[in-house]
């Protein structure tokens, strides 16, 4: 599922509001590139930082005129990852549309025919299938059981190794925390680690990257702020041999 819950108010945040929701229907523009650039480091002091290399486009709810709030965050993260492959692997295949992603999963036999045209959500496993199908890119799937030690040690170390070797975006999702998110970097300091999250849940008119960062749609998130009772899966495209 793709719902982001505000625990302080008990309401679901679907993204944009009011005029932004109306405007998106009429102004479909090319996706912004590299929305994490210019974001300050999350803390000072001794640190280890690993991030993606290369360019990508930011896909989010409604960016192509399709109102996919509540179910499309996994698709949008896949599109963002696919844009990285398109821009950095010398491939001319653009990011697949939502219908193309659904049709591919049906063709592969992962989903029944009724999946096409549905509003069913997808996760990291489907992401690995889709990226291999369209771009011939294998993906490593890492299961993190959850909790402070697993997230701070296993997930963080896997991400450092991935960005240093492959440099490609990572998709992250879980069970209790079932909101798909793109991971574009990891920062480790004396007081813990942070993930560079590119959140696909924004819905509204196109914003400048500085405004996306100000509103928290692109941000460094403390690993300790993640749901400690949720397991997490990471989908890591294995791009070292053909990458930039």
UniProtKB/TrEMBL annotation:
Swiss-Prot/TrEMBL GO biological process terms: proteolysis
A GO molecular function held by the record: deUFMylase activity
Organism domain of life: Eukaryota
Keywords: Hydrolase, Protease
Residue ranges annotated for the UFSP1/2/DUB catalytic domain, each copy included: 48-235
The family this protein is said to belong to: Belongs to the peptidase C78 family.
Record PANTHER family: INACTIVE UFM1-SPECIFIC PROTEASE 1 (PTHR48153:SF3), UFM1-SPECIFIC PROTEASE 2 (PTHR48153)
Protein name: Ufm1-specific protease 1
Organism for this UniProt entry: Stegastes partitus
């Amino acid at each position: 599922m793709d719902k982001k819950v505000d625990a302080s108010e008990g309401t679901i945040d679907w993204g944009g509001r009011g005029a932004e929701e109306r405007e998106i229907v009429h102004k479909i523009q090319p996706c912004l590139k590299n929305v994490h650039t210019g974001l300050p480091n999350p803390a000072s002091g001794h640190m280890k930082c690993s991030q993606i290399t290369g360019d990508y486009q930011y896909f989010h709810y409604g960016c192509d005129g399709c109102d996919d709030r509540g179910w499309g965050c996994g698709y949008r993260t896949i599109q963002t990852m696919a844009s990285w492959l398109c821009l950095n692997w010398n491939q001319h295949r653009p990011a697949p549309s939502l219908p193309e992603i659904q049709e591919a999963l049906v063709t592969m036999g992962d989903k029944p025919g009724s999946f096409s045209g549905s509003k069913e959500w997808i996760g990291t496993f489907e992401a690995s299938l889709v990226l291999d199908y369209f771009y011939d890119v294998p993906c490593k799937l890492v299961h993190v059981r959850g909790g402070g030690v697993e997230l701070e040690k296993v997930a963080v170390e896997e991400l450092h190794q991935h960005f240093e070797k492959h440099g490609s975006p990572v998709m992250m999702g879980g069970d209790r925390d079932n909101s798909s998110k793109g991971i574009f970097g990891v920062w480790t300091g004396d007081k813990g680690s942070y993930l560079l999250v590119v959140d696909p849940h924004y819905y509204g008119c196109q914003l400048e990257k500085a405004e996306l960062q100000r509103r928290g749609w692109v941000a460094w998130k403390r690993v300790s702020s993640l749901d400690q009772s949720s397991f997490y899966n990471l989908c890591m495209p294995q791009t070292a041999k053909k990458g930039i």
